[in-house]
Specification:
By secondary structure, this protein is an alpha/beta fold. It has one domain: Alpha-Beta Complex (Spore Coat Polysaccharide Biosynthesis Protein SpsA, Chain A). The protein has helices at residues 32-41, 60-64, 80-94, 113-125, 174-186, 194-201, 221-232; strands at residues 3-9, 26-27, 30-31, 46-53, 71-75, 100-103, 130-135, 140-143, 154-158, 164-173, 207-210. The strands form 3 sheets. A 7-stranded mixed sheet has the order 5-4-1-6-10-7-11, with helices on both faces. A two-stranded antiparallel ribbon has the order 2-3. A hairpin with a 2-residue loop joins strand 2 and strand 3 (30-31). Helix 3 (80-94) crosses helix 5 and helix 5 (174-186) packs across helix 6. It is globular, with a radius of gyration of 18 Å. The protein starts with a strand and ends in a 16-residue tail after the last helix. The structure holds cytidine-5'-monophosphate. Cytidine-5'-monophosphate binds at residues 8-11, 13, 23, 52, 76-80, 83, 105-107, 217, 219. Residues 8-11, 13, 23, 52, 76-80, 83, 105-107, 217, 219 line the site of cytidine-5'-monophosphate.
Length: 248
């Protein structure tokens, strides 16, 4: 099954407190964005890449010059969902038909080809789309409203049965996903993943595909340290060689 990869990479990653936008932080010799791209750049099923970038992004050209794939670029928006929508609008303007699109966060550098394979297999069977996800394993505590904000207090324990954490990539047909994101934007709503936009629009019943616990999203310095350990392992991501190393 052939697909386009859509990467929202227009965030600032302020929670990390770094001088660079987080997608350009270096881990195990490459930027997070390059690690996130690597399995797809090495995948013959990937027809091309559409990327949403911040208007003042100075770092992208050094990544772009080493990507041997058709590329479409868009300027991102205020929310992640705006960035994905703009990327898909740019793709829709240049593409005939209704290709599959895999939307993947630049902040998830450890996705493995086996996860992509499982996602594509599910998407091939379900026109309504599919997403990688992980069943919750921890006990869930609801925090009590504490007007002083001094300490978090347990209000109650929430049932976790049937709850999953949504990961990326998420696979949808271009045109329904774009229509769903445009409808959400027109209502002033920002879905936090693609599946939520599809759910709101009633345009499909996305399938949950078990992903890997190593498919970590980098949000905090601790996440960065964790993915550093994962990516430093020999053979961590076989696809990494699909992007030549940057010139020093
Ligand atoms: O900030 P967060 O970790 O949720 O961002 C997830 C992904 O969405 C990152 O790849 C980030 O660059 C991207 N993003 C974006 N446009 C925004 C906010 C986030 O492309 N306005």
């Amino acid at each position: 099954m052939r697909y386009w990869l859509a990467i929202p990479a227009a965030g600032l990653g302020q929670r990390l407190g770094a001088a660079l936008p987080k997608q350009y932080l270096q881990v195990a010799g490459r930027s997070l964005l390059e690690w996130a791209l690597a399995p797809f750049v090495g995948d013959p099923r990937c027809e091309g890449i559409v990327v949403a970038l911040a208007a003042d992004d100075r770092w992208w050209p050094q990544v772009r010059e080493r990507l041997s794939r058709p590329l479409v670029e868009a300027t991102g928006g205020a929310e992640r969902s705006d960035s994905v929508r703009r990327a898909l609008e740019a793709l829709a303007a240049r593409t005939e038909g209704d290709p599959w699109v895999l939307v993947h966060d630049a902040a998830r550098p450890c996705v493995r080809l086996e996860e992509v394979d499982a996602l594509l297999e599910a998407a091939a069977r379900h026109e309504g789309g599919a997403l990688l996800a992980l069943p919750l394993v921890d006990t869930l505590k609801r925090q009590e409203d504490d007007p002083s904000g001094a300490a978090a207090i347990v209000a109650r324990t929430e049932p976790r049965a049937g709850l999953w954490r949504a990961l990326t990539p998420q696979a949808f047909r271009l045109r329904p996903l774009l229509a769903a994101l445009q409808a959400a934007a027109a209502q002033g709503r920002a879905p936090t993943d693609e599946a939520q936009a599809i759910e709101w629009a009633g345009l499909g019943r996305p399938r949950l595909v078990p992903g890997a616990a190593t498919n970590v999203k980098v949000t905090t310095p601790a996440d960065l340290a964790l993915v550093g350990l994962l990516l430093a392992q020999p053979g961590a991501l076989p696809g990494a060689s699909s992007i030549p190393a940057a010139r020093r």
